[in-house]
Amino acid sequence: MCINCIRNQVDITEGIPKHATICFCRNCDRYLQPPMLWVSCQLESRELLALCLKKLKGLNKVRLVDAGFIWTEPHSKRIKLKLTIQKEVFTSTILQQIFEVEFVVSHQQCDDCAKVMAQNTWKAMVQVRQKVDHKRTFLYLEQLIIKHSAHKDTINIKECKDGIDFYYGSRSHAVKMLEFLTAVTPLRSKNSEQLISTDIHSGTSNYKFSYSVELVPLCKDDLLCLPVKIAKALGNISPLVICSKVGNSVHIMDVNTLSVAEISTQTYWRTQFQALASVKQLVEYYVLDVEPCGPVRGKHVLADIQVARSQDVGRNDTTFFARSHLGGILNPGDTVMGYDIGSSNFNNDAFDALHRGSLPDVILIKKAYPAHRKRSKGRNWELRQLSKEQDEMVLPRKQDQERVEQDYEMFLRDLEEDPELRATVNLYKANKGKKENDHVMTEDESDYEDEDFPEIKLDELLDNLKLDEGPDAAAAAEDGEEGEDNEDMTMD
Question: Which residues sit opposite 190 in a β-bridge?
């Protein structure tokens, strides 16, 4: 065959598209490079030529000899290329062909510009985390936020596995939340920023700011074993202490001497340590005898207390002597919660360095009220909660849901049993309608009426008003729903 006949019968450009589309963002002047990369290219530049050639399928089956732009009007939204390719069609026969490809410039908004143009998008985020196996700290922190209205500027609150994320439309609001958290709890934080977009016309840039907050992994009533360096710096206090309070610093107390000290935030993060045991490891004990023996510091009275495990009462005669700060509130016959030091195995280097002969067998923490819990009486108060969204990436399991409910019940019991803790949060009157957990006491249960349980009085509760119920709720209240009180509503 002659060359003209070969060209008439063989088309080496078959399979290569002559028309294609390329995406262009008008806000940032960038082209889309599949799959999701946006690059900035000038007209008739080598970068734009390479981007167009990558859009052509089948070009890898031929040899590209030359490629160049054909001039078009800038406003025509057309990009034309002139390509020269070669391919072996027969044995020792190479055919060369020149053809044109036309690209249509399609306008598409990139992801970064879409975030800028979107309404109600967040500009700053505060991520609060704590590396513990319970939610008690976040439950208490949530009540502090509600009491001081620190969440009024948030546009969204999302609950994650290990904490809470707060989203804001302004950076100043996120900084304000960070300052509030610093004032109420010991923490450390670091901030980062991400460039979202740059306006090449005005020279301005748009950023998103993230503040990562890590809370101290210590909670009230935790058992601590201080490193030697910290114990000496705090007046040579005993290394084995309990956490009595967590404010903007960690308050600790030695139950053997009633010595107290504070661990500042800076001191803790310089020498970090974990809690030796938490409230989930508490053991129930039965008080046999109480003998005051020492000084008094506020509500704490030092006493020698003889106790036995509640599960051992009536089975064996094993008893323990513990020196405790609860001498002023414990009497023989009471129930108390404590840590079983003698039969516990702690994986802690600081604890292993202590002399085992000088360690107590039991460290008592707080008084318990199991008889009152058996009454199953419904609470006449309730707490407000933040409107949080669940993280879609972490689906809660049934075991996790049960654990959260147990943590919440434990937090409610702490509020009932600790007046000082209760004074820092707002409690609201519950609805007067009969609840599912309400229980009518029997004659046997009426014997617990005289128990010294710290009941919550009505003057400690706030009215639960809700001002945005609308006319439907008002009409329903006038129709005779006597089981509900119009003042006992929840305020958003």
Answer: 212
**DSSP state at residue 357:** G
What is the pLDDT at residue 281? 92
Total count of residues recorded for the chain: 492
Q: ∠451-456-458 over CA atoms, to 5°?
A: 130
169, with CB counted inside 10 A (0-12, 13-18, 19+), is middle
Q: DSSP assignment, residue 337?
A: E
Give me the pLDDT at residue 480, please.
Answer: 42
Is the preceding peptide bond at 35 cis, omega within 30 degrees of 0? Answer: yes
Question: In this predicted structure, what is the pLDDT of residue 441?
Answer: 43
* One-character DSSP codes across 155-209: EEEEE-SSEEEEEESSHHHHHHHHHHHHHHS-EEEEEEEEEEEEETTTTEEEEEE
- Contact assessment for residue 225 and residue 232, using Cβ atoms and an 8 Å cutoff: no
* Residue 108 Cα distances to 29, 53, 382, angstroms: 11, 20, 51
Taking the alpha carbons at both ends of the chain, their separation in whole angstroms is 87
Q: Rounded CA gap, 313 and 12, in Å? A: 95
**171-184 and 136-147 helices, crossing angle to 10°:** 120
SS3 381: strand
Q: State the pLDDT at residue 477.
A: 40
Q: What is the pLDDT of residue 451?
A: 57
pTM above 0.70, yes or no: no
Within 13 Å, how many C-alpha atoms sit on residue 191's CB side? 11
Residue numbers in the chain where pLDDT is lower than 50: 434-450, 467-492
Helix 398-417 to helix 136-147 angle (10° resolution) is 60
Task: Round to whole Å and give the CA distance between 492 and 490.
Answer: 6
